């Protein structure tokens, strides 16, 4: 997966500096590859290391929920002609699994980063490069089911209701909208964990770290959504969770290592000190039984809307 992109990356990765000329799809900062939308603040890179982290995160979440989705749509997914949209699809981990489980359904993934394979992919999968914050490039009432997971670093605090309206617009009447989010601020934390997780203040960046607790009310306020269901869960790190906690801690280590360019600046510490603290955090996450709240909210679009 992504071999063409890896080759392109190897050829065009410059020495530490910003380079926006080489490829209009990407920009390169200190040897890492990022999306190339100037106005978008989403801080994580999109290179092979981040793709690997996203795949790992997908498997963690599937294990935690013991499923890939919650909406009551299995029968619809088995019907020919069903259309599904995955918003902020990232590496496409969710979409590839879903597409292989439901071959009659056509899946579309949207993301600002065109990191998904363009040729070697299932026939029932398409990817579109688009900025969700500018509206989705689809007609009203297009999709039977829309899934969106972990966009808390992407959607400004005040834009969530607008985005939920936009997702509802492209959903067919009777279709389901499902959002999964996490509280990035963990509970039962050690002292170094506290420091690292409070770096890069999301509120100051105009984001909403507590969106996970607000989704339900935003859904309920959207007049074309009904039967709103909220399911709560935890992403745990503690030793009692065995390999799950270990894998979650490793995924968090990777996330912090990929966010290092902006977090290190915020903490005003050396690169070495950042790495030392990250090692301590990974230990603390296990020792203190740290966990994150995660939440899945889904609802049906009313039959008589738009
Ligand atoms: C944390 S990743 C989640 C990926 C995927 N949903 C998953 O759960 O595996 C967030 C994704 O949102 C994408 N993204 C960020 N801002 C976006 C925007 N304005 N429009 C579309 N996609 C965006 C990023 O490129 C990234 O792939």
From TrEMBL:
Record domain Methyltransferase: where: 84-175
Coiled coil: none
One MF annotation (Gene Ontology) recorded for this entry: methyltransferase activity
Region listing for Disordered, in residue ranges: 1-23
Biased composition (Polar residues): 1-20
Pfam families: Methyltransf_25
Database matches in PANTHER family: 2-METHOXY-6-POLYPRENYL-1,4-BENZOQUINOL METHYLASE, MITOCHONDRIAL, METHYLTRANSFERASE
UniProt protein name: Methyltransferase domain-containing protein
Provenance organism: Diversispora epigaea
